[in-house]
Amino acid sequence: MESPPKLTFPELFLQLDRRIIYSLVALAVAIPLIWPIGLPIRITPEVQSVFDKIENLPEGSNIMMSADFDPASQPELYPMMKSVLRHIARKKHKVAITVLWPNGPNLVAQCIEEIKLEFPDWKNTEDYVFLGYQVGGTIVIIGVGNSFVDTFPKDFYGSTTSTMPIIKDFSRLGQADYMIMFEAGNSGDWWIVYGTEVHNVEVGGGVTAVVAPQYYPYLQAKQLNGIIGGLKGAAEYEMLMEHPDMAVSAMDSQSMVHALLFVAIVLANLFAFIVAMQKRNTARREK
Amino acid sequence: MQFFRKQFPILLAFVMGMMMFIREFIPAKIAINLYEGFTNWAIVIVGFSALFAILSLLHHHVNKIRRKVPGHGYSIVTIVAFVQMLILGLIFSVRPGTPVGWEYWWLFVPMQATMFATLAFFIASAAFRAFRARTWEALALLVAGLFVMIGRVPIGEFISPYLSDFAGWIMNNPNMAGLRGVALGVALAQIAISVRIIFGIERTYMGGGD
Amino acid sequence: MKNNLSQAAIFLLLLFTLSLAGFAQEPVEPSAPGDGSEIEALQGADIVIGLEPAVSEPPAVNVPLPESATLDDLANDNGTGVVLQFPASPGETAELTYTVLIGESAGGPWTPVAEFTADTTWKEDEGHFFPAFYWFEKGRDGKTIHAVPIRNLGENVPLETGKQYFVKLQSALGGTTAEYPEVLSATPRENWFDTSKTNMLILAVLFGATVLYFIARARRDPNLFIRKINGLDAVDEAIGRATEMGKPILYLNGMSTLADLSTLAALNILGRVARRVANYESTLVVPCRDPIVLTVAQEIVKAGYADAGRPDAYNEDNIFFLTEDQFSYAAAVCGIMMRDKPAANFFMGYYYAESLILAETGANTGAIQIAGTDAATQIAFFVTTCDYTLIGEELYAASAYLSREPLVLGSLKGQDMAKLFMMIVIVIGTLLVTFGMHFIKDLFKALG
């Protein structure tokens, strides 16, 4: 029986089993987590804009926050949300938080608890109000534009919103000095169209890397003042806060995976070219 | 009866569609109240649809268990998980510190994050398999993609800050131009399909085809 | 006589000298009373000679005020706003602060409702109802008129429609305040047409009319050209392949609800696919994420089978609800793909991050895959993993392409005409804006 023709190295490489690729990716993620490299993180203007806005607001300003993501996007958006909440607590701004995705509220509640450990004086109903989740999407946005109390008669913890001290001066979206939204999908479009454009509130976005490209047109049109994009954006914000946390620790892994993919794709194309040339030469010789 | 199945939905779609279109240009209170009223009704309908979804889910899995189709064990797990979460949620609520809160944080969150994390592996294998420059356009796309891939992470900035700047330029210029083109085309297509629905030419939503 | 003249001269000289001394003196302002004790001391006195030393006051600060101001009903609102407009005060600087006070009567009481520095709160577009009349830029930086919309009486008390309100304007500079001499009044009124959206209405009506025109034209002449869309041509190939292999066809309607037009487009294609699957006597599996989409999908597939003359072959259990959760749905569909190994996968509608998980798993099973989405960020993932991809509006064109119905083809034509118009406007507008002519851009802006 004839043995199958021996494959050259380029051909072998091109037919690489995907499980080998998965293993290499796993190693590229795991090794820098165990032995960090410490690559420098450069701050981009988009993230700097969001930071500067919150930093330069007078103490006690009103900030609207919407955390529209679920556990799937938690690795990217949770670190940036935590950093921003830390910033807000540090600057003693008032914040009202909503969630448009049904699986999101407990993530926000957990984040609030973690921030309260760092800032024990940060008080519920006085410094922040967590309004929770309400079904409706755009309807909720229109509702908070009119009144927090009407849309959320009770907050996430079951307290009546109308009697809260924070509501006295911050009872609707139009009274916000700034808005920050954390988006894993396209609810950010609704916030811009039905919320901030209508009530003339400046807004910044924290988005996953996958959806970041669709928010860049808003940035260019100045409908967004800045974008914290993906885990890298979260890491930049942590650096600006001088409080490196989860995002910074993941940057080396992200860099390694990207570098691995870069090398793999370049090699694959190079070998594909070599194989094609070899086949062409063989065909020419046979002629 | 035929009227309610065939003509009434089309008439309703026309009236509601035109009303919502005209409302957009009327700032008076009556228009705002009308819109709020309809959106409140929409919330009610969405709430009922969630109930319908639960019934549909249970029906599907109970059928699988009854017929003992291969893999019906997973249907048993689904129903048990569903029922226990419902009961515990009703008794203890769903906030952090409750049993459902525990299940959410230690089961649901890791599973969801894991599913999202598999994207990294799938991207790697898809990119390796499919990113081949077979034409000049594909080569241009590939080179741009490689620059963005390496320029948007710290290692790219470490190699050269110009990589990061170039990646930013690609994102802010060609990428945005392409996205805007797609968005414009989609927006116009959506207007056209809306016109078809309002005027009864498109009747897919009725479920009966043409 | 000589003596008289000389005496007169000396007298005049003395007078002149004394008067000069008088001009040289600073005017002495009466000193302000302190605790009132000076006033008590002076009471009862017939002649008071002030012996207090002259106190020099700081020079009076000239606080700029506008030369005119108007208060009008706020245009294009629901009758709960008025707008105060005034031109920039002569000599105003960024240090000048304006305060606007509102009251329900001409005598007050007054509530401050706005405070801003003089370098902010400008009227965006000054007085041009239709800016497109202006061919060249003429001082369009828009920083000459302040416009302050007022929507409440302070403390979130909204203004009432039909009730007269009074407004005062104050300016302050370096601790000194000046007040505009006139108390302005206006009554908020409901507006029945938002004039700032006039251009939008005209464009929408024009576009709708274009679509309807081409639909009417298509009735007369059904042979309208539509370019080849490979993904849609491959639908038959995919169904045929699945039938030959004896494997099912998997069809996904996307992750969005029926309110999303891409879901409607996906359901449209499902109807055509169902009809062809019924003809081929193959199996169609449609797992749904939304319960309302589920009911519509069931009706559509049932109708498709009925139209093909095979109502008996319809199996309702093949169109089922999975879960509304994004990644749970993706995991469940991947499980279906791995177990049932469908020969053809259709991914139509709106997708999020799970798109690659679905498409890559399908690719690993060896299925032929056709995707169609208007989610711009997911198109790249589908292109790399699927055999055919409908990009953006090709998904919406699918119903016209597959059915070749004149009415639907006509609307596609109308849509293309609108796109052509937009392309021409973009090209010409870009050139004009490059040379400083913004009127085309203004055609698409909210009007002032």
Short description:
The complex is a heterotrimer of chains A (287), B (210) and C (448). Chain A has 287 residues and is α/β, with parallel strands linked by helices.
Structural summary, described in words:
The complex is a heterotrimer of chains A (about 290), B (about 210) and C (about 450). By secondary structure, chain A is α/β, with parallel strands linked by helices. Chain A has a single domain, classed as Rossmann fold (3-Layer(aba) Sandwich). Helices cover about 55% and strands about 10% of the residues of chain A. Chain A contains twelve helices and six strands. In chain A, helix 9 links the parallel strand 4 and strand 5. Chain B has about 210 residues and is mainly alpha-helical. Chain B folds into two domains: about 90 residues, no CATH class; about 80 residues. Chain C contains twelve helices and 14 strands. In chain C, helix 5 packs parallel to helix 6. The termini of chain C are far apart. Chain C has a six-stranded parallel beta sheet with strand order 11-10-9-12-13-14, with helices on both faces. In chain C, strands 3, 4, 6, 7 and 8 form a five-stranded antiparallel beta sheet that branches. The chains are: A alpha/beta (about 290), B mainly alpha (about 210), C alpha/beta (about 450).
Q: What are the defining features of this structure?
A:
heterotrimer; B: 210 residues; mainly alpha; 2 domains; 8 helices; 82% helix; extended; C: 448 residues; alpha/beta; Immunoglobulin-like; 4 domains; 6-stranded parallel beta sheet; 5-stranded antiparallel beta sheet; 41% helix; elongated
Per CATH, the superfamily of chain A is MTH777-like
CATH architecture of the largest domain in chain C: 3-Layer(aba) Sandwich
Mean pLDDT of chain C: 81
Strand percent estimate of chain A = 5-15%
Secondary-structure blueprint of this entry?
The complex is a heterotrimer of chains A (287), B (210) and C (448).
Chain A: H1 9-14, H2 18-34, H3 45-56, E1 62-68, H4 74-90, E2 94-99, H5 105-118, E3 128-133, H6 138-146, H7 148-151, H8 165-169, E4 178-183, H9 187-199, E5 203-207, H10 212-220, E6 227-229, H11 230-240, H12 246-286
Parallel strand pairs in A: 1-2, 1-4, 2-3, 4-5, 5-6
Helix pairs in contact in A: 2-12, 4-5, 4-11, 6-9, 11-12
Chain B: H1 2-23, H2 29-67, H3 72-92, H4 99-130, H5 136-151, H6 154-159, H7 161-172, H8 174-198
Chain C: H1 2-24, H2 37-42, E1 70-73, E2 82-87, E3 97-103, E4 111-117, E5 145-150, E6 165-173, E7 176-179, E8 184-186, H3 198-220, H4 230-245, E9 249-252, H5 261-280, E10 284-288, H6 291-307, E11 319-321, H7 326-340, E12 344-348, H8 355-364, E13 368-373, H9 376-385, E14 388-391, H10 393-403, H11 406-434, H12 439-442
Parallel strand pairs in C: 9-10, 9-12, 10-11, 12-13, 13-14
Antiparallel strand pairs in C: 1-2, 2-5, 3-4, 3-6, 6-7, 6-8
Helix pairs in contact in C: 3-11, 4-5, 5-6, 5-10, 7-8, 8-9, 10-11
